[in-house]
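Proteins fold reproducibly. Look at a concrete instance:
___
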Amino acid sequence: MRKLAAQVEAIEHRQALKHGQSGRQVASARNTASVRTAGSKGASSAGVRTASSTHGGFSDGLSGLRTDGPADPGIRFSGGAQPIEVGANQNPTLHSGSGFAGFKWMPPAPEHQTSKSAIDLSSSSPSSITQTDVDRLPPIFSIGGISVRLGGFVEFSNIWRDSNMTSGPATAWNNFPYANSPNHGLSEERMSAQLSRMSVLMEANPSKSVRLQAYVESDFGGSAGTTNSVQISGYTPRLRQGYFTFTQKDWGLHILMGQAWSLATNYAKGILPRQEQLPAVTDNNQIPGITFTRVPQIRIGKDWHQKYWLGLSVEDPQATVAFSSALSSGGTLPAAYGEKAGTRVFYSNAGGVLLNPNTQYTYNPAPDIILKGAVDTSVGHYEVFGLARWFRSLAVEPGMTTTRKHTTFGGGVGAGMTVPLGTKKLQMAGNVTAGEGIGRYGPSLIPDTTPNARGALSPVPELMGSLGLIGHPTPSVLLYTYGGIETAGRKRYMGADGAQYGYGVNDLNLGGCDVEFGSCNAQTRTLASLTTGGWWHFVEGRYGSVMGGLQYTYIRKFAFRGNDGSNNSVYPTTSGNTVYVTFRYLPFQ
């Protein structure tokens, strides 16, 4: 390499003398030659082509290496080398035998352009907070006809809860303990960087009216069996979103395949991915009351002039099951009134290949189907949707030796809105969903179903909703407050012993719920919450941005009525408080 550098310097010196260049120009040429030499390490001189040179192409055996144009201060080499030179209108292209022919760095932004913040907090659901805002970022490089954008952030959160839940940066809202638990009132302090997030958006435009996109988003919210916080907090990456889309602009056609937020999620505009109306909160389990699932799906959408929208989504199903007494798949139900024996019921299996073996997966006869219509107007975004679900179980009825298959139907309807309140600095966002067997679509995971006396899964009536106010006192500050609620109804049957069984029963002995170490199997009826907080974007530059967030959530949990063992009614309740202090570094913004 030193010999090659010496040859380059000699050639530059001869050319400088030939053209009468000054000593300063010769020295500059030598510096440029050293950069080219450093940049060519590990590659053959004929196999690498950087941007072309102000002196034209090299001969003397160096025709494969040429540079020209002003230096780009954004691209630097290690080892003290100077920036590689990139032409203003021509990008360096890498042609190598590795199969990456056509790789190009995208052109740098003009150095003296009008400064504008890379983070937009004016939305009711800023993508830089709720997702990764990758659509607003410039492409980093291209491969063939595909441009590639990188997004994400590194996050540090300090979490405090007034009851010990031994959970990371996602609060299981339905798990706040009653007073019988020693964890009740035992505060929890936890630090985490698990929500650090990475994303990549790849885009191609085969024609003026066709766009193809592929999007992958990941964080470190996974927790393998070997994870511990004693020596190392080695949490594992997980798939948050991973999908591709096809758009035909002239037809208003939109197709999505992969894992994304459910079409039932509230949207800020249209029904396109990465435009979801997600609360601008820190907690990774959002707030009670919103629609919250990210699942594999196939979605077909149609728009009329980007104003009216219609979408149909077929989504991966899964159900939650609860019962008033201990019951696992394959167990026997208490005998129904008039029966001497109970039905044996099967409704789930442990995960198999590429599924979590420690998780039970319910029988899924058909995917969930969602149909949504939306309209964008000058006074806000409005949407309505319908949801259809199916649940399956196998039952061995008393006196029988073979199973009988039961399939039941559930679903619901919902609506959402995002509207400005007379000024761009204040918005209101809200959503509501009601139906039977829809608990899975809420962050609190109130159960979808409960077995009836014959072993069929009966959908539980449920209602969920939220309402939020989002304000922008300055361009760098966002403030919010949200209220949310999730509530369930009753599905039960009368047993042969005169007791009620199912979900929402009111004859359980719940006298121990308020006594430490007492027995308490209360079933959740309602969860209500109030969340308030804000974000401050306080650092920005070519090196990225830094944001800080503060969030407080109060939650109240109400159980179905029971008795104290002496025929006196009791209504167990509990509450919880959480505080998040969060900092994010966004290197791409």
Summary: The two ends are 38 Å apart (CA to CA). Confidence is low (pLDDT under 50) at residues 21-91, 93-100.
